[in-house]
Write a structure and sequence with these properties.
Chain lengths: 320, 253
């Protein structure tokens, strides 16, 4: 209990401080007093840079991080597999492929990207989730990885080898895309908190849940739909950012235990902090250019995943 | 609760349950005994309504069990299986809370104090916040029993509840079940491997063989060497042990 409360306090403070730091850092460094002066209306140029470029990017990174981390935690519950995550199971790359194809053949419409990414994600899940893969964790991951590579290759094929996701990312994100991410993200994250008890229920076998009158299939589909919604919205706004959905919930378990009603809110906060930190580092580390959050996450995430599997996190969940 | 001319089987293969008619005595302890593969667990599933008969009906209070919604059924019948699996770490209270699901809306958070009385019944009130995996096999079985009791059922079904327990835990669990039956007038239906345990515990027994009811009756009616030898296809003798009573032994070397 004490550990849990301290973990919440620490992550909230970390998130606040990182957000301040992210406002200060960039091509041009602003001190806290400069930011304060800007806020007071004394430095219009600084205020304009911060409001137009830095703030939307910070908000987008935080929301997207929270969404990706919750999507990961929920898919781990649904698949009863601690390595399940929309980005390594091909859900987000399917979203990117559908966005690309849809963008080529369909006329533009409202929420086009979000909708196309959503359909792509659903297609990936339809190909992925069946009795076999739900029962055998290795099979789920292998099929997921194969799907992911296939969708990525198809995307490259259509773009004739140009890496399309590099055109997305947080660089140059504007208030208009932050607005839609903010609204969609808010709805999604509220739904996550409401549906958290279901993620706990799925710790029991289906047979046991049916015996207590729970509509297991409806519950599982509801949660999967939420996972696709969350990851599709992020994919539509900033492209695929891998590994957040694996790293964050697994670390959250270490700090706050195994109850999804605490894992999920803690994952949201930690995911927001992690992605904001990664994006801020990416922004300043190779000035005047920058590294995308996706690239940095891939570099960190790979070794983390290996460590998780080797330390037995994979076998931590009994399957049968 | 009764079974009326129930048949159950997969199309094209031999019936697992054949022409089964019997009534579960209300407020009593009933044990189902028979060889492995005789259809004991299938019978339990039919009684629970988790599978439907190919023909015939299973009725609860004069109503076909199939007509009840899952939630209504869960508020009448609870099951404790022989072995439980969880896919993630759960605390004791989380497990027991799952028994309260039929009484809440699907998205509700179930308060802790709602499960305390059931944990008290199984003498685990202090273990509420412990992880399930830190408990012994016997304690874990009591947690699952508390979860079943949390459904506030009229019928408590137990599928080989003592299989993985040592004799001390077996005794404790059986004593607890007898107490619940006596104090709460809970109807208990058990599938048991151990004939002697079944004879000692039960008000009534169903002896089944190859999906058919051979004999339904009191322990005295089942204590018949010929009957038991036929049902288990083994030479069986009944001996009398001082201060205990009749005891079934099998005579193969």
């Amino acid at each position: 209990m004490v550990k849990e409360r301290s973990a919440y306090i620490v992550i909230c403070i970390a998130l606040f401080l990182t957000a301040i730091l992210a406002l200060m850092l960039g091509t041009q460094f602003y001190s806290v007093s400069q930011l304060w002066q800007a806020l007071m209306g004394n430095q219009p140029a600084v205020l304009s840079t911060v409001l137009t470029f830095r703030l939307p990017r910070i908000i987008a990174a935080m929301i997207a991080g929270g969404m990706l981390a919750s999507a990961g935690a929920i898919s781990q519950s649904v698949f009863r597999n601690r390595l399940a995550d929309p980005t390594i199971l091909g859900v987000t790359s399917a979203g990117e492929l559908f966005m690309l194809i849809g963008g080529m053949v369909l006329p533009a419409f409202v929420l086009e990207k979000q909708l196309l990414a959503l359909i792509g994600g659903l297609v990936a899940f339809a190909l992925l989730a069946n009795r076999q893969t739900l029962r055998h964790p290795y099979q789920l991951i292998i099929v997921g990885v194969a799907l992911n590579l296939t969708f990525m290759a198809l995307t490259q094929l259509f773009t004739k080898g140009i890496n399309v996701s590099s055109s997305l990312g947080f660089n140059g994100i504007t208030w208009s895309s932050v607005d839609s991410l903010l609204i969609m993200g808010f709805i999604g994250l509220v739904a996550v908190l409401l549906m958290a008890p279901w993620a706990n229920d799925l710790k029991l076998p289906d047979e046991q849940l049916s015996a207590v009158g729970v509509p297991v299939t409806a519950m599982r589909l509801g949660l999967l739909a939420l996972v696709v919604y969350l990851s599709a919205d992020v994919t539509a706004a900033v492209g695929t950012i891998p590994f957040i959905g694996i790293i964050v919930p697994n670390i959250a378990r270490y700090f706050v235990g195994h109850d999804y009603q605490t894992i999920l809110p803690f994952s949201m906060l930690s995911g927001a902090w992690l992605l904001l930190t990664i994006d801020t580092i990416g922004r300043i580390v190779v000035l005047p250019s920058e590294l995308s959050a996706a690239t940095i996450m891939a570099v960190i995430g790979g070794p983390f995943l290996i460590m998780l599997v080797q330390r037995g996190g994979f076998h931590g969940i009994k399957t049968g | 609760m009764e079974l009326k001319q129930v048949n159950y089987g997969y199309p094209g293969s031999k019936n697992l349950i054949t022409d089964f008619t019997a009534e579960v005595p209300t407020g009593k302890i009933l044990s189902i005994i028979g060889q492995n593969g005789a259809g004991k667990s299938t019978l339990l599933k039919l009684l629970m309504g988790s599978i439907s008969p190919s023909s015939g009906t299973v009725e609860i209070a004069g109503q076909p069990i199939a007509a009840l919604s899952n939630r209504k059924r869960a508020a009448k019948i609870a099951l404790v299986s022989q072995q439980h699996q969880v896919y993630d770490e759960m605390t004791v209270k989380e497990v027991v809370k799952t028994g309260r699901l039929p009484f809440h809306s699907l998205l509700a958070t179930i308060p802790d104090d709602e499960v305390q009385p059931f944990l008290k019944t199984v003498d685990l009130a202090d273990a509420s916040d412990q992880p399930l995996s830190s408990l012994s096999g016997g304690q874990q079985q009591r947690v699952w029993l508390a979860a079943a009791l949390a459904q506030e059922p009229q019928y408590l079904f137990l599928d080989e509840p003592t299989t993985y327990l040592d004799i001390r835990y077996q005794h404790d669990l059986m004593a607890l079940i007898q107490k619940l039956n006596a104090e709460q007038q809970l109807t208990v239906v058990m599938v048991l491997h151990d004939i002697n345990q079944a004879l000692k515990m039960s008000d009534q027994l169903w002896l089944i063989k190859a999906g058919q009811l051979i004999k339904a009756g009191s322990p005295a009616a089942i204590l018949d060497e010929q009957l038991l030898s036929d049902a288990f296809e083994l030479p069986i003798r009944i001996v009398t042990i001082e201060n205990y009573g009749p005891y079934v032994i099998q005579l193969t070397a």
